[in-house]
Automatic annotation (TrEMBL):
One of its GO terms (molecular function) is methionyl-tRNA formyltransferase activity. Pfam families: Formyl_trans_C, Formyl_trans_N. Its EC number is 2.1.2.9. Attaches a formyl group to the free amino group of methionyl-tRNA(fMet). The formyl group appears to play a dual role in the initiator identity of N-formylmethionyl-tRNA by promoting its recognition by IF2 and preventing the misappropriation of this tRNA by the elongation apparatus. InterPro entries: Fmt, Formyl_trans_C, Formyl_trans_C_sf, Formyl_transf_N, Formyl_transf_N_sf, Formyl_transferase-like_C_sf, GART_AS, Met-tRNA-FMT_C. Residues 202-305 form the Formyl transferase C-terminal domain. It comes from Spiroplasma turonicum. It comes from the Bacteria. The keyword Transferase applies. It catalyses: L-methionyl-tRNA(fMet) + (6R)-10-formyltetrahydrofolate = N-formyl-L-methionyl-tRNA(fMet) + (6S)-5,6,7,8-tetrahydrofolate + H(+). HAMAP family: Formyl_trans. This is Methionyl-tRNA formyltransferase.
Length: 316
C-alpha cells in the first residue's frame, strides 16, 4: 500500500483527503497550521482539516515550520506528498524525500498563483475557474500541471458558495486522476509563463470597499470577501461590514432623486435594502453589520425612526 502524508488547512483541503482515503491509500499523518486564538475571548479555532482528522483518527502535526518534522517524515518512509491550501512553503529538503509531490490548487493555473485564488477570481468577475493538480516545486504554484477541471461562476456566487463547488470538484479530480499520476501514466505539462497572474493573501487594509469603482466591481469585491473576512467601509467614522450586495437591473423601477451623487453616498432606503451610488450607477446593500452588533438585513432600516443611517450620508 502506498503511503501518503497530506498537508492542508481550510475547508477546501478536506475533500481531497477524503478522496485519497476512499481510494485506499494509507494516510500516515496530516500536517496543518497551528491552532489560532480568535476574538476577545481568545477562543481557540482549529483548522477544518484538523477537525476532519480528529473525527477519522488520523495523526496530526501542527508545526510552526514544516522543516521541524524532517526526522518524523524520514522515519515514516512515505511514498507521496499531497497538499491543498496548506499555507506554508515546503522546502526542497522535505520535497526531496518523496517519489512525487502533488498540489491541489483552486485555480486554472497559470492564473492566480498564491493563497487567494478564489477571492481574486470573484473580484475580477471571472465566468469560470477550476482545480489544477500540479507537481510541487519550491517556486510558488509554478510546477508542471497534470490535469485541470473547470466550473462556471455564477453572478451572485460568493466565496463560500464557490469554495463549496471547488471542494466537490477537488474530490472528483483527485479520485479520478491521482492513481494515474502516481503511476506515471499522466505526464505533466509546463505552465505558460506569459499568462501567469498572482493572487496574494489580502491584507486588512485591502478589504476596504472602494466606492470610486463601477457597480459591478463593488459587487464582485463584496462577494469575493463573503462570508469571510467580509468587506468593510466607514460611515461617520464607524466601521461597517457589508456582507451582501445586489446589482440593480436596468429594468428595475427606482425613484431616484434628480441630483448628482458622490460615490458611496446613500441614495435611498427601500424595502429591499440600501441604495448606494457608485462611480457609474447604483448598488443595493442587502446585509450589513455595525461595530459590536449582529449582521442584519439592510431592509430593517426602511422607515425606521431615528435610524443611524440616512440618505445623504456617505460611505468612505
Amino acid at each position: 500500500m502506498k503511503k501518503i502524508i497530506y498537508c492542508g488547512t481550510p475547508s477546501i483541503s478536506v475533500k481531497p483527503l477524503q478522496a485519497l482515503i476512499d481510494l485506499g491509500y494509507e494516510i500516515g499523518f496530516i500536517i496543518t497550521q497551528p491552532d489560532k486564538a480568535l476574538n476577545r475571548q481568545k477562543k481557540i479555532i482549529v483548522s477544518p482539516l484538523k477537525e476532519f482528522a480528529l473525527k477519522n483518527n488520523i495523526t496530526i502535526y501542527q508545526p510552526n515550520k514544516v522543516i521541524e518534522l524532517l526526522d518524523t517524515i524520514i522515519n515514516y518512509e512515505p511514498d507521496f506528498l499531497v497538499t491543498c491550501a496548506y499555507g506554508q512553503f515546503i522546502p526542497d529538503k522535505i520535497l526531496n524525500l518523496f517519489k512525487n509531490c502533488i498540489n491541489v490548487h483552486a485555480s486554472l493555473l497559470p492564473l492566480y498563483r498564491g493563497g487567494s485564488p478564489v477571492q481574486y477570481s470573484l473580484m475580477n468577475g471571472d465566468k469560470e475557474t477550476g482545480i489544477s493538480l500540479m507537481k510541487m516545486i519550491k517556486k510558488m504554484d509554478a510546477g508542471d500541471v497534470y490535469v485541470q477541471s473547470k466550473i462556471c461562476i455564477n453572478e451572485n456566487d460568493d466565496n463560500g458558495v464557490l469554495f463549496d463547488k471547488l471542494s466537490s470538484l477537488a474530490y472528483q479530480i483527485v479520485k479520478n486522476n491521482i492513481n494515474q499520476i502516481f503511476n506515471n501514466e499522466i505526464k505533466p505539462k509546463p505552465q505558460d509563463e506569459s499568462k501567469v497572474t498572482f493572487a496574494y493573501n489580502l491584507k486588512n487594509e485591502e478589504e476596504k470597499i472602494n466606492w470610486n469603482q463601477s457597480s459591478i466591481q463593488v459587487h464582485n469585491f463584496v462577494r469575493a470577501l463573503s462570508p469571510t473576512p467580509i468587506a468593510y467601509t466607514f460611515l461617520e467614522n464607524e466601521r461597517i461590514k457589508i456582507k451582501k450586495t445586489a446589482l440593480i437591473k436596468d429594468d428595475e423601477p427606482l425613484i431616484i432623486p434628480l441630483k448628482l451623487f458622490f460615490p458611496g453616498e446613500i441614495v435611498l432606503i427601500d424595502k429591499k435594502g440600501i441604495i448606494v451610488a457608485t462611480m457609474n450607477g447604483y448598488i443595493r446593500i442587502l446585509e450589513l453589520q455595525r461595530e459590536g452588533k449582529k449582521m442584519l438585513e439592510s431592509s430593517v432600516y426602511y422607515k425606521q425612526q431615528n435610524c443611524f443611517i440616512k440618505p445623504g450620508m456617505v460611505f468612505k
